[in-house]
Amino acid sequence: MENLRNEVKITLAGEERTMRASFEAIVAIEAATGKSMTAIINQVADGDLSITQAATIVHHGLRGYGDSRLSFGQVGAAIVEAGLGEVSLPIVHFVQSSLNGVSVGKPQAAAA
Question: N or C, fewer C-beta in 10 Å, the chain?
C-alpha cells in the first residue's frame, strides 16, 4: 500500500489511484484543515475524521502524485459512494507516511 516515495494506493470511483505525501500536498492539507499533520494523525487515530477532512486529504494527496482528474467535489462524492470506512485505511497510511519522511535519495548505511 505504501512505498519508499510515500505513495499510497486508494480506490475511488472504481479506479485505483495513487496519493503521494509531497511537500506541496502536506502544506495544502495543513492550510485547508488548519491543523498540522501530527494533529490530523491523532484525530484519525481517534476515529474522528469528517468527510470534508477525508476529501481534503485525498484530493491533495492525489495532486501530490500529479493526478488532478477529480475535482474536490468528485473526490468527496467518491468517498461518500465508497463509504468512509472503505477509504479510512489508505488515508491513515497516507497521513502516517507524511510523518515518516521520504526514503528515496537518503544515503543508506554502509554494509559492514
Answer: C
12 φ, ψ to 5°? -135, 140
- The CA–CA distances, whole Å, from 83 to 55, 76, 79, 80, 91 equal 12, 10, 6, 5, 13
Short-list 19, 31, 104, CA closest to 69: 19
C-alpha cell at 67: 493526478
Residue 65 has pLDDT above 60, yes or no: yes
Backbone dihedral region for residue 6 (phi beyond 0: left; psi -120 to 50: alpha; all else: beta) = left
Q: How far apart are CA 53 and CA 33, in angstroms?
A: 7
Phi, psi of 68 (to 5 degrees): -115, 25
Q: Which residues pair with 18 in a beta bridge?
A: 9
Q: Which three cell numbers stand for residue 58?
A: 485525498
The pTM assigned to this predicted structure is 0.84
